[in-house]
Amino acid sequence: MRDFLATTATLALVVSTPALAQSSTSDTPAAQATSARAQGRDDDIIVTARRREENIRDVPGTISAVTADQLQAKGPVTSGGDLINAVPGVRFNDVASENLAEVSIRGSGTQRATGADSGVGLFVNGAYVGSSTLGGRNFKTVDYFDLERVEVLEGPQGALYGRNSEFGVINLILAKPKFQNSGYVRNQFTFGLNQDRMSAVVNQALSDDIAVRVGAEVYSQTKGFYYNPLRGSYYDSTNGWNARGQIRYRSGPLDMTLLVDGQDLKLPSFLNTYVIPGGGVNPQIPLGYVQSRFTASHEGKDSMQQKSLRVMLTSSLDLGGGVSLESTTMATRWRSTQQFVSGLDLATVSQMRALGEIGTYPYDQTKTDVRDHTLYQDLHLTGKSGDLTWIVGGEGLYQRDTYDRTVVSSPCTVTLAASFCTGTPSAPVCIKPLPTSANCPTPFPLAYGNFSDTRQRIYSFAAYASLQYQIGDLTLVGEGRFSHDYKTATQKVTLLYTGANVRLPSTFSFKSDQPAWTFTASYKIPGSGGTLLYAKAGSGYRAGGVNNGSFNAAAPNPFQFTYGNENTIGYEAGVKSSIGRSLFVRVSGYLSRTHDAITSINDGCAVTNACLSALQIFNVNGGTIHAKGVEAALDGRFKAAGGTLSIALNAATQRATFVAVPAGISGLPVLNSPVAQIPDWTMSATLDYRHALGRDLNGFVNVSYSGQRGGGQDTVTLATPYIPMDDVDLFGSQVGLTYKNMQLAVFVRNLTDQAVQVLKFTQAGYPLSVRWNKPRTFGVTASYRW
User: Fold this and answer.
1) 421: burial class by Cβ within 10 Å (0-12, 13-18, 19+)?
2) Domains of the chain
3) Looking at the DSSP assignment, which residues form a beta bridge with residue 608?
4) Is 130:121 a contact under the CB 8 Å cutoff?
5) What is the pLDDT of residue 58?
6) For 49-76, what is the mean pLDDT?
């Protein structure tokens, strides 16, 4: 806390003198507190969801936009979930790891095909930032630094956004340089974590034609909630930085912005906490074992590091006659490394051995190392002539990914009487858990583990077009795209230390041509306060690909090296309408049918059957899914008790089930079973109240809620039972004061300190371990804007 106060005071002194001279009245917190966007209204929000600027209320479809002011009003943004937890029908699957977290929209699920591309398109400034490798199904932290707004489009978006926009799109729009001098400094301190988060952004107009925007964010943390006493480290630690620099040139018909940003962050790793019941349900730990939620010892290392570098050039050229040329070019390079363990520490296992239990091997270790290089280019023309609006364009994507995975295992058989073998072949180590434990065999008979290396290339090219025609109050829109995807992967698996091949290097490829389309009809009822009725149908797809794994001839389910595209056709109808001058309501219903659903299964192997090896998980096209749902949202703004009260409420109910599965393949989902990771209900609410307390002094209170009910965690198979997800009720609040250009606020996350098991692991149908959500946290934020 002392560091927080010192840092805030220093920043305020550094910037206060020039900032006061440059302040624009419209940019002060007091003015923003009364603006439509800061209060949660979306009637003035201009979005680019359909690759052209338009008012959000005029878009015939389910689209939500959340501004940076709305996000900050609720409290600090700490994960991708904070960006979308107020959007109906959208869920962030937070599994306590930035590498593994992902988004689901309208029945897309998330655990159905881990390792495949996401069924939700992830975009920043209109450029695709997702990937099929580990860490590519979630945004990076730098992606939501210095945001302008978040746009969420639900339903198939394949016609305009292409591959992997099968169930919707999330597009993060970054704040770009403006032609006025402005900026902010913000310092946030979170108690319990002892985390200090300092950010600063400066926007400067260098001339009438050139403006720059430079910003950085630094994380420093010394404590945490989840602790490993053996290593004296915290699992949930964040340290490092984000930074971005932009320069914008605007002269006559040309407007272009060059952006360079990056991050180097140590992020929280995950902790699996054992919750094994007694009674002999677990043969290795028959007496059962329940670990502390917050304290767990491991011999191995737990860490996660994400580094990225991105260059982006966006430009717009007005060609005259209502025609403009839009271009987005992006090159990125990022790397994500993670280390984790699943065993217990030696001391705990030794105590288990004394009680006649085998326990677990305490020296296992897994390390993943992912590197991604992406080149993206979109170029399109937009035009308008009378009642006709059109778009024609093309898109190209190239990705080069490398995925290395190192797994350390025991080079000796683990039994009740055995000692533990570890070390390396050149320096073997034998550790006796008990004085009576048998000596290790000489030499160690088994491998020390394995190293798998996958190198993947993705090429995707597409042409697309959109045509909109307005006939009075009736608008008709047709959109289409044709894509060509090609993916190739080379894989090899070797033994640790020796380099001997477990499987010879092999190369597999996947190629597909895919059309996508959308048709929309909307009607604005005259004299109804802007009531918009619409109906649409559209298609989208998730790209197939190549599995990473080893073929075992003894496997009950033969390993398959490739799988095909997943295709969805969706239908939607809805209404958007103002009720008086203070309320805006949206209601929509949808149906979708997904063919060749990409589904994860395993080959049925185990060390105790003919395979003599651990199971392999891989993706197949596992059947047909039907999904349906209804979504509703209400936004309002009222005068109340001398102040302004803004509300935003929404709820969604959805169902998705496997209605057909292929014959002749074991391990597929049970017929009519639910799709994994889809709550039966999601809901959220935000209340924001602001009141003038005196000259230049304003107070505000913001209360937010997000919840979910029902749904299953994993795909249900004959071998995997239905595992219900926990109900969720998370409350947050932020209370503060603004005085002229300064703001001081106190925030709380997870107000009721609800404990949620965000991921549950089972063995033979019995509980094994779980991951928990973040506990209640308090913090304070001080900011200065000009």
Assistant:
1) buried
2) 2-167+197-409+447-785 (2.40.170.20)
3) none
4) yes
5) 82
6) 86
Straight-line distance from the first to the last Cα atom of the chain, in angstroms, rounded to the nearest whole number:
25
266 alpha-carbon distance from chain centroid = 17
CA distance 375 to 312: 10
What is the mean predicted confidence (pLDDT) over 519-526? 95
**Contact status, residue 304 vs residue 97, Cβ threshold 8 Å:** yes
pLDDT of residue 431: 97
The least confident of 12-26, 313-327, 441-455, 644-658 is: 12-26
- 360: number of Cβ within 10 Å: 21
Alpha carbons 175 and 257: distance in angstroms, whole number: 11
β-strands 121-124, 168-174: how paired?
A: parallel
- Are 707 and 727 contacting, i.e. CB atoms less than 8 angstroms apart? yes
The rounded distance, in Å, linking the Cα atoms of 38 and 68 is: 8
Mark 684-694 as b/e (b = at least 16 C-beta within 10 Å): bbbbbbbbeee
DSSP 608: T
Residues 6+ away with beta carbon under 8 Å from 442: none
The amino acid occupying position 314 is T
pLDDT of residue 111: 64
Q: Tell me phi and psi for residue 257, to 5 degrees.
A: -135, 130
SS3 state of residue 6: helix
Cβ-contact 537, 571 below 8 angstroms? yes
At 297 the three-state DSSP class reads coil
pLDDT score at 725: 94
The tokens of 641 are what? 């008790």
Average pLDDT over residues 148-163: 92
**CB 116 within 8 Å of CB 597:** no
Query: Residue 398: beta bridge partners?
Result: 375, 459
The b/e string for 180-212 (b: 16+ C-beta within 10 A; e otherwise) is: ebbbbbbbbbbeebbbbbbbbbbbbbeeeeebe
Q: Give, for 639, the enclosing helix (H) or strand (E).
A: strand 624-640
Span 383-410, average pLDDT? 95
Of the candidates 159, 202, 163, the one whose C-alpha atom is nearest the C-alpha of residue 180 is 202
Task: Kindly calculate the radius of gyration of the chain based on its CA atoms and give it in whole angstroms.
Answer: 27
How many Cβ atoms are within 10 Å of 339's Cβ, its own excluded? 17
* pLDDT tens-digit series, residues 166-190: 999 999 999 999 999 999 999 999 9
Distance separating alpha carbons of residues 28 and 786, to the nearest angstrom = 6
Q: Which among 94, 113, 85, 121 is positioned nearest to 714, based on CA atoms?
A: 113
Which candidate, 585, 482, 576, 579, places its Cα nearest to that of 535?
576
Q: How many CB atoms lie within 10 A of CB 674?
A: 22
Mean pLDDT, all residues of the chain: 89
Q: For residue 82, give the H/E element and its range.
A: helix 81-84
- How many residues are given for the chain? 786
Q: Which residue has the tokens 């039966």?
A: 680
pLDDT at residue 243 is higher than 90: yes
One-letter amino acid at 387 equals D
Cα-Cα-Cα-Cα torsion 311, 317, 322, 323, nearest 10 degrees, comes to -70
Q: Residue 665: its pLDDT value, please?
A: 82
Name the most confidently modeled range: 26-40, 392-406, 614-628.
392-406
Q: What counts of helices (H) and strands (E) characterise the chain?
A: 6, 43
Question: 3-class DSSP state for residue 165?
Answer: coil
> CA–CA separation, 707 vs 683, rounded Å?
5
Compute the average pLDDT of residues 586-610.
87
